[in-house]
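Chapter summary example: a protein plus magnesium ion.
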Amino acid sequence: MNPAGFYKTMRLIRRFEERAIELVRSGDIASGIHPCIGQEAVAAGVCAALRPDDIVLSNHRGHGHLLAKGSDPGRFLAELAAKDTGIDRGRAGSFHPSDFTVGVYGASGTVGHGAAIAAGVAWAVGQDSDRVVVSFFGDGAVSQGALLESFNLAALWRVPVVFVCENNYYATTLPADTAIAGTVTGRAEAFGIQAYTVDGQDPDVVFEAAARAVGRARAGGGPSLLEFSTYRYEGHHTFERTMRLRYRDEAEVARWRARDPLALQASRVAPEVRERIDAEIEALLDEAVRYAVESPQPDPLDAFDHLYAGGMPVRAGVSHA
Amino acid sequence: MNPAGFYKTMRLIRRFEERAIELVRSGDIASGIHPCIGQEAVAAGVCAALRPDDIVLSNHRGHGHLLAKGSDPGRFLAELAAKDTGIDRGRAGSFHPSDFTVGVYGASGTVGHGAAIAAGVAWAVGQDSDRVVVSFFGDGAVSQGALLESFNLAALWRVPVVFVCENNYYATTLPADTAIAGTVTGRAEAFGIQAYTVDGQDPDVVFEAAARAVGRARAGGGPSLLEFSTYRYEGHHTFERTMRLRYRDEAEVARWRARDPLALQASRVAPEVRERIDAEIEALLDEAVRYAVESPQPDPLDAFDHLYAGGMPVRAGVSHA
Amino acid sequence: MPKLSYAKALNRALGDEMARDESVFVMGEDIHLALTQTTTGLLDRFGPRRVVQTPLSEQGFTNFATGAAMAGRRPVVEYQIPFLLLLVVEQIANQANKFALMSGGQTRVPVTYLLPGTGWRPGWGAQHSDQPYSVFAHLGVKTVIPATPTDAYGLLTTAIRDDDPVMVFAPMPALGIREDVDYADLAPVPLGVGLVRRSGTDVTVVAVGHLVHDALAVAEELAGEVSVEVFDPRSLYPFDWAGLAASLERTGRLVVFDDSNRSCGLAGEILATAAEEMRLDAPPKRVTRPDGAVVIGCAPALDLAVQPSRAQLTTAIRAVLKS
Amino acid sequence: MPKLSYAKALNRALGDEMARDESVFVMGEDIHLALTQTTTGLLDRFGPRRVVQTPLSEQGFTNFATGAAMAGRRPVVEYQIPFLLLLVVEQIANQANKFALMSGGQTRVPVTYLLPGTGWRPGWGAQHSDQPYSVFAHLGVKTVIPATPTDAYGLLTTAIRDDDPVMVFAPMPALGIREDVDYADLAPVPLGVGLVRRSGTDVTVVAVGHLVHDALAVAEELAGEVSVEVFDPRSLYPFDWAGLAASLERTGRLVVFDDSNRSCGLAGEILATAAEEMRLDAPPKRVTRPDGAVVIGCAPALDLAVQPSRAQLTTAIRAVLKS
Ligand SMILES: Cc1ncc(C[n+]2csc(CCOP(=O)(O)OP(=O)(O)O)c2C)c(N)n1
Ligand SMILES: Cc1ncc(C[n+]2csc(CCOP(=O)(O)OP(=O)(O)O)c2C)c(N)n1
Ligand SMILES: [Mg+2]
Ligand SMILES: [Mg+2]
C-alpha cells in the first residue's frame, strides 16, 4: 500500500478511538473500550495484505481490525454506543463486534478461543476457494490451551489461516515474561507452523510479513504465525483511567511512545497530503459521532431478536398471571 | 534396580492384568479394563527411580503405575471388582484408582488433565520437601490444551514434576501421526522443558532416563518430559475384544510383540530365579483373586459415603411422602 | 416392517442428511471406525472431508465447528462420553449459542452436538456417568432427548436442519432399543412438541429419554389400579408447556421421572412450571437422581441406589394419588 | 462502628484466613495488583508464594489447585469474570468435586472458587453477564452467594475452611454494598443456613444474592399493604429447606426472586421443592431472567428488559396474594 494509504488507515483508527474515549467519558459508551492506540500498524499492515473477501476473527481489542478491514466508522461508533443502527444492532458493543459485510466474523470475549473459530472458518472456506482467514489475539492468549489446540488442528489439516499475535507485553496487568515460558513463536513452531517475530510499529514491515504469510496460506501452504511486537499506549481498558495501577514503568512507556507508529507513518507522507487526510477523517468522524449519539436506543421489546433462529419465542422471567 | 527386581515388577503387572481380564470375562469386573500389557517396562522403570514418598498421578491405563509403586494386588483387584475392600472402597474401579499409602494420588478420566493436577501437587510438595511427582499420560493427551497449559505453569514455576508420555502410537483407534502435528517432545520444549524420546521396552533404559529427570527435579531443576515409545498388545479396552476394529496392521503388532519387554527382561534373569518369582507371583495373585471375588459388595446404604466431607446429607431423588 | 435400532436410527439420520445437504459434515473422536456406531459406513460414502476424525481437543474442535458453521457448514459434533460436554460448556453456551445474537442477526451457528451414550455405564466410574442435559436447558441451548428410534431419527434430522446450536442427548440405555418402522415414515420431528405415549386419566407421568420406556412399563403394570398418562417431552428446551398443561387439565396430578440430579434439574423445572401455571389437584412429585453427582459407576449396587427406578416411580404414583 | 464494604469483606476474610492457616493461598489473574480488590494488600503481607498470579490458563490452574489441595493446601481460586467458570465446569464438577469420592475417602479437595462480580456489568457484552450458580448447584458443588458484607466475610471464611470444593458467588451489584459492623462480630457463617431478613406473615419472598436488598426495599414499600417475609438462603447448595418450610408454615405463599435463567434455575428448584413438600396456599411464583441466556450487556434498555426487577416482584407479590 502507498504511504498515504497506511497513514489514512492508521490515523482513522487512532482518531476513532480517541473520539470513542470521549464518548466513554460522556457516558455515551457505557462499556468503556479496550483501546488499541499504539498498535495501529498491525491492523493496518495485516489487513492491507488481505483481499476484501478474506476473513478476520478479531478479539476484545478489535476496533483497528474492523476499521482496517473497511467497516463504516459511523455504524461502528453507533455499535459501541449500543445503538440499534450499529453494525450489530447494538448487540455486540465494543467487546464483540462483527461485520460480515467486510468479512469480520466476530470477536469472542473468551481470550484465545477466536483462533479455533478462525481455523474452522478457514477449513470451510479453504475447501472451495482460495480465501484466507486471519486470527488476531494477544500475548495473553498463548497460554490458553484452546488456542494451542487450534494450532494443532490448523497444522494437521493445513488450513489457510494466519495467526497474528499482537504482543504488547501485557495481558491486563500481567507481564508477558511472567506468563510465557519459552516464546510465542516457539509455541507455534512446536506444531510445525512457520512463525516469525516482527516489528509491529512499522506498517510496511507488518505488511511485508503478512503478505508472505497470506500468500503462503492462499497457495495451500497452510498456517503461519506472526508475532508483532507492539505496545498499547492506553490502559488495558478505559476503566484503568479511574484506577491507580502501576505495572509498567514510565521509561518503558516512553521508549515505546518514541516508536509511535502513526508518527512514523506521518513522516513518510507529505504534509499537505496529511493535512487533507486529517481533515477528511475529522469530518468523517464528526459525522460518525453525530450518527452514533443521535441514533435511537434499541427498543426493549426487541430484546429477544436474533437470540434464536426464526424468532423462537422464549418464556419471560415472570410467571404468567 | 537389579534384573530380578524389574522382572518381578513387570511379571506382576503382566499377570495381574491377565488375571483381571479373566475376571472381566467372568463378569466379576463389570467395567472392563484398559490393559497396559506391553507397556510394563515404563511403569517399572519410572517407579524404580522414585522414592516411596514420591508421588504419581496415573491415568486410565494405570494398573502398572500402582503396582510398580507398591499397591497391594489383592486390594487393587478388589477395587477393580468394585468391592468394599478395594483400595478406594470400590469407588474408583479400574478407571480412577488412587492409593495414597503408596503415593498414587489418583487418575483423572479426563485425558490430559492429570498433568495439571500433578503440577499442582508438585508445586505444593516442592515448597517444603524434595519430593518429586510423576505424571503419566498417553500420546492422545498431548493434543489436550489443558495439558499444554500445565507445561507452561510447571515450567514458569519450576515445579518438581516429570511428565511421562507413554506413546503407544494410538489413542483408542486414532493413530498418533494423524493427531499430532510436530512431535511430543517439541510440545514440551516449546515451554523450555527438557524432553527426550526414549525406548520404552527396556526397563534399564527407562530407569536411566527417569532417574536423570527425577534427580533434576529433586535438585530444583524443574520439570522434564520423557516420551517412551511403547505399544499395547491388547485393545484399547477389553470391550474391543467384542468388536472388529482394524486400525493396526498385523505386521506392526508382530514387530512390537518381538520387542516384548517382559521377554527381554526374562532373558536377563537366571531361569531358576525366574521360576521362583513366577511361582511367588502366581500364589500372590491366586490369593488376590480369591480376596477380590470373595469380598463383599459395597452396601447400597453407603452410596453417599465420601461424597461430601463430614458426611453432609443429600436429598434423595424422590420427594418425601 | 424392518426393525430399526436407536443407534442405527441416528446413523441413518446422519447419513440421510449428509446425502441431502452437502454442507453437513460430522466430526469427532474415533469416528472413522465408528466406535459409537453413529458414523458406521459414512467414511466410505462421504470421505474424510465430511467425516472428520479429530485429536483429543474437544474445546478446539467445538470452536472449530462454530467457525465452520459461520462459514456456511452444518457440523455435527460427536462426543464419545457425556462428561466431555462439561469440557465445552463455555464453547457451546457462551460462544456458539451467542454469536448470532452478538452479530445482530448477521450470522447463525447451525451446529448439532451429538451425545450417543449419556448416563450410567456400568463400571465406567464416577466421571463417566453424568446426564448433563439440564445444564444446557438452563443455559438456553436447544436440547432434545429422543426416547425411540423413530424420534432419534426425527429429532437428529431436525437438529441438523435447525439454524441454531442444538444438543442431542441419546441415553445409553436407549441405544439398543428397537422398533418396527416403515422407513418411508421416518421424518423430522419438530422441536418443542411432546407426545402422549399412553393416555390416562388419573395422573400424568412426564418421563425423559430412556425412562419413557420404564414409565410405560410401570403404567402397564398399574393398569388395573390407576390410569396413567405418559408424556414424553422429547425436547427439553424448548419445552412443550402447552402439551403438558393439556395433559394436566385431564389428570390434575403429576409425577416427573427424570435421570438428572434433583437440584436445579429438569424435573424441578417441570414441577415449578406446573405449580405456577397449571392445574394440580395434589402436590406433584419427582423421581430423579439425588442431589449432587453421585453415580459412582463402579459397583452396580451403589449405582442403582442413586438412579431413578421403576419401584420409586410406582411408589410416587401411588402417593400422588392418595393426596 | 466502621463501615465495611462487601468487596472489602471478601478481602478481609481472605487475609484473615491466610494469616490463620499457612496452607491457605490464593491464585488467579491480575491478583498482584488486586484488580478485583479481593487481594488488596495480600501480596505485601504474604508474598508471591501465597498470592500466585497466573497466566490465562483457567483450566490448567483450576486443576493445579486440585492438586495443591490434595497435597494439603487450601487454595482460593479467583476468576475475574463469571463466564470463566463455564470454562472450568468439568474441572470443578467432574474432577475436583469427585476425587474425594473416587478415593474412597483417602483424600479431600478443599478448594474455594471465588467469583467477585457475577451477573450483569453494564456494557460488557453478552458473554460477560451470566450468573451460572444454578449449574453448580445442579452438579452438586457446594455453592454460596452472600448478600451482605457480614455474610461475604462469614461465607468465604466457611468456604475456605470447608473440606470440599465450594463456589463463592459475589454478585456485581452487591460488591459496593456497605454495612456498619463491629469487626469482632465477623464470624464464619455455616453452609445451608438461611436467614429471615425481614419477618412477615402474608408471603415469603426468597431472594438470592444482591436481590435480597431489592426484595427488602419492595417489602418496605408494600408494608402498609402486605406483610412480606424476606428469606435469604445464603447458600444454594446445600439449601436450607427446613428454614424455607418454617417460613412457608407461617405465610403459605411464595415468590422467588432470582437472577438466574428461568429454565432449570434455582428459582425453579425452590418452587418445585415447595410444591412437593411444603405448605402452599396458592400457586407460587418466580421472578427471574427469561429462558435462555439473553442479557446482551450492551444496551441498558435491552438488558434491563431481561433482568428481574422490583416492579416485577411487586406485581408477583400482589398476584400471589390474590390467588
Ligand atoms: C479465557 C479468558 N481469560 C481471562 C479473560 C479476562 N481478560 C480479558 S482481556 C484479558 C487480557 C488479554 O491480554 P492479551 O491477550 O495480551 O491482549 P491485550 O489485552 O493485551 O490486547 C483478560 C485477562 C478473558 N476474557 N478470557
Ligand atoms: C478429554 C478426553 N477426551 C476423550 C476421552 C475418551 N478417551 C478415553 S481414553 C482415550 C484414548 C487416550 O489415548 P492415549 O492418551 O494415547 O492413552 P492410551 O489409551 O493409548 O494409553 C480417549 C479418547 C477422555 N476420557 N477424555
Ligand atoms: Mg497483551
Ligand atoms: Mg496412546
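Key point: DSSP finds twelve helices and 14 strands in chain D.
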